[in-house]
Design a protein that fits this description.
This protein is 80% helix and 6% strand. It is α+β, with helices and mostly antiparallel strands.
């Protein structure tokens, strides 16, 4: 049935038997086909040359790219070395900071102890001076007692003589005299002991004064030394703060470098597979271009022969078949080159990014080097300060140890002094007891003298004198006791100070060792900082050199890739032209009433177009849709779809109307992959049932192959079919099925609704 909306140019009347039997002159068409074929052959030769040139360049780029990747990995390794050196230097700086803080605390405590020790030593020196004067008084009293003892002994001797003269009367007095002599002897011995102890005490006092004087002398040098230590700690603390700041900047830069290196290497490694894919795809495209050249040569040769009119129909059929194969191959090469072009453009963009990153790496590396140089200079300056002060500090430590040793000896001397005082006290107590006994004997002698009457008068005188001497001895011992009591209190006070001083001396001794150890720790830490700073400078120097090489490689590679991109753009343009010319030739072959390999599929496309137009017109007549609904182009996005799907006001009705004839045409030939109606914007609302499944969220590739409905197709083939108004349009293209591409042909015919172009009906089939 002839549909009324089909224009005269789209209708083709079936040929009559007479028409079929009469030879048709296709000479003009064959000449046009030959002209087109010659043009195709020349264009293919040019494309082949361009693809060979680009392919060779891409091979070179792949090798350069591998070199660049190696440089990126080398950068990462070098930065790891820098990072390790920075970490060790930071640890050394932290150790030095800790040592400085500990030393400050130690020094503060030591200064307090040293001040207390100095005060104690000064007090000891003064008290010992007073002690020496007191000892002189004790010595004088002891000398007096010794003299009294001699006098007492002399009196006792005289008393013995008198007792002998007196005979029996003096016998009792003689006994008393003997006792007095013995007591005088004991008193003399006690005073000799006191004199010896006094000499011992004077020696202790002398030693204490000498040690105190020596400590006083050391105090000045120690104060100077501790001031030097404080200044040094301030210097080291300031230097370590500067070093710490430098290493903070180094660590920040190292982290930045590490991040950039990791991103660059990851990106380059990710591109590595893409570069190989690009090279393989380009090689395949180049090989296919060679096949194209052979096919074009065959086509040109066939059309260039002298052909009779009887051969014309066969020639057109062969040309249509060969051209169909050619256009399919061209579409395949064009698709591959287009993919390569996209990849190369992406590579160029990535290389541009890497180039900027390399510049940032060089800047960061320079920052690291400058900071490391700052840290190294601070370390060297501090090391010089340490070296200059180390002798004074060690001398101070020696003086501290000497002072603490002297204080320890003073404590021992004070203890011995106390012991000596105790012994004097004991001797004095003994003399006091002897004096009492002597006085008692003198009383007895007086009694005996009284009994003797006039004959005992001499004894009475002696007894009186002995009693007087005993009294003097008692007074002398009392004086000694009073002096000793004061001395004992002083000695106890000094001993207590000595014990406190000994305790402080032990702490100062330990602190002095600590200061010495800290000095060693600081020297090691500063040396470590200097060494690691030099390692960092060496590593960053190597890194900057690598960055420079990488930057040069990137610039050269970027230039080559850009040239490849330009060449591919040119080749792609030529392929577009070639595909267009090939499709013109293909459509030209099918423009006459000759049964070509594509004729069946063209007829099915036109059949589908008529059925779609008729269905929409019937829906309008039935009031199921308005004309505005049929031509609705307000595409409403379906949320959460990938690829994006859309709804229109007509799509629900086409889901009801179109599947009947679409599925029938789909099943009429094994080569047909799909057939469907598209509006004039490329929107396919209702597709074949087998590719109209609900989308799977997050699975784009599966959706591309199995959920092809409700989509707007913006590719060249889809848009050409949608907008074509010629009776038919034959195209060749690579169909994207998600995980793979399928080489296909596309026969389409325009759909009209009441004479208004609505879109097209597409039959997609394998050649």
């Amino acid at each position: 049935m002839r549909l009324p909306w089909i224009s005269a140019r789209t209708r083709r009347e079936p040929a009559t038997e007479r028409d079929r039997s009469a030879p048709v002159d296709h000479t003009g068409l064959i000449e046009r086909l030959g002209s087109h074929a010659d043009g195709l052959h020349g264009e293919i030769d040019q494309i082949q040359q361009e693809l060979v040139a680009v392919s060779d360049r891409v091979d070179q780029e792949a090798r350069r790219f591998q070199s660049l990747l190696d440089l990126g990995r080398q950068l990462a390794r070098t930065n790891e070395t820098t990072e390790g050196a920075a970490r060790e230097a930071r640890e050394a700086t932290t150790e030095a900071d800790r040592a400085v803080e500990d030393s400050r605390a130690t020094l503060t405590r030591s200064l307090d102890d040293i001040t207390a020790l100095t005060d104690a030593v000064s007090a000891t020196e003064q008290e010992i001076g007073n002690l020496d004067a007191a000892l002189e008084g004790v010595g004088s009293a002891a000398d007096s007692i010794a003299t009294i003892a001699k006098q007492t002994n002399l009196l006792a001797l005289n008393a013995t003589i008198e007792a002998t003269r007196a005979g029996g009367i003096g016998r009792g007095f003689a006994v008393v005299a003997e006792h007095v002599k013995e007591l005088a002897k004991q008193t003399g011995q006690a005073t000799e002991e006191i004199s010896g102890i006094l000499d011992e005490l004077r020696e202790h006092a002398r030693k204490l004064i000498d040690r105190a004087s020596h400590c006083t002398t050391l105090t000045g040098t120690i104060q100077t030394g501790t001031s030097t230590v404080q200044d040094l700690l301030d210097t080291v603390g300031g230097a370590m703060a500067a070093v710490d700041g430098a290493y903070t900047r180094i660590n920040e830069s190292v982290r930045e470098i590490n991040s950039s290196c990791r991103k660059t290497v990851d990106g380059l490694e990710g591109m590595s597979g893409e570069v190989d894919t690009t090279r393989n795809a380009l090689t395949e495209a180049r090989d296919n271009a060679r096949q194209l050249a052979g096919t074009a040569q065959t086509l040109s040769a066939g059309l260039g022969d002298d052909n009779t009119a009887a051969d014309a129909e066969r020639l057109i059929q062969e040309t249509a078949s060969t051209t169909g194969t050619l256009t399919v191959y061209v579409s395949d090469v064009a698709g591959a080159v287009n993919q390569v072009e996209e990849r190369v453009a992406h590579e160029a963009a990535m290389l541009e990014t890497f180039s900027r990153a390399t510049g940032q790496l060089e800047a960061a590396g320079q920052s690291v080097q400058e900071s490391a140089d700052e840290a190294r200079q601070s370390a060297e300056t501090t090391a010089s300060s340490l070296s200059a002060a180390s002798e004074d500090i060690r001398s101070t430590v020696t003086d501290l140890q000497d002072m603490t040793g002297q204080v320890g000896q003073m404590t021992t001397e004070l203890s011995q002094l106390q012991d000596a005082l105790q012994r004097i006290h004991k001797a004095s107590t003994s003399i006091s007891a002897i004096a009492k006994q002597t006085n008692f004997l003198a009383v007895n002698a007086s009694i005996e003298a009284a009994r003797a009457g006039s004959r005992g008068q001499g004894f009475a005188v002696v007894a009186e004198q002995v009693s007087a001497l005993a009294e003097e001895t008692g007074q002398a011992t009392q004086s000694i006791e009073q002096t000793l009591e004061g001395l004992s209190d002083t000695a106890e006070t000094l001993a207590a100070k000595g014990r406190d001083g000994a305790s402080r001396a032990e702490r100062v001794q330990a602190d002095s060792r600590n200061i010495s150890e800290v000095l060693t720790t600081l020297e090691q830490a500063i040396r470590q900082v200097g060494e690691q700073s030099r390692h960092i400078q060496s590593a960053t120097g190597e890194m900057n050199e690598t960055c420079s090489r990488a930057s040069q490689e990137l610039n050269e590679l970027h230039g080559e890739v850009q040239q490849s991109a330009r060449d591919l753009t040119s080749a792609n343009g030529r392929l577009d032209t070639l595909l267009g010319e090939g499709q013109k030739l293909l459509n030209l072959c099918n423009s006459v009433d000759v049964d070509t390999v594509d004729r069946f599929f063209i007829n099915k496309a036109q059949e589908g177009a008529r059925a779609a137009g008729a269905a929409l017109e019937q829906a309008l007549r039935d009031g199921q849709l308005t004309e505005a609904d049929v031509f609705d182009r307000d595409y409403v996005p379906v949320p959460d779809t990938d690829p994006q799907q859309y709804m229109t006001r007509f799509v629900e009705l086409t889901d009801t109307l179109f599947p009947a004839f679409q599925e029938e045409i789909l099943s009429c030939h094994d080569k047909i992959l799909s057939c469907c109606a598209t509006d004039d914007q490329g929107y396919i609302g209702t597709h074949n049932l087998h590719v109209s499944n609900p989308q799977r969220p997050g699975d784009r590739d599966w959706n591309l192959a199995n959920a092809r409905h409700r989509q707007i197709y913006t590719d060249r083939t889809g848009q050409s079919a949608a907008k074509n108004t010629e009776p038919f349009l034959l195209q060749a293209y690579r169909r994207n099925m998600g995980e793979r591409f399928v080489l296909t042909k596309d026969a389409s015919a325009p759909i009209y609704v009441h004479g208004r172009h609505w879109g097209g009906f597409r039959v997609i089939y394998v050649p």
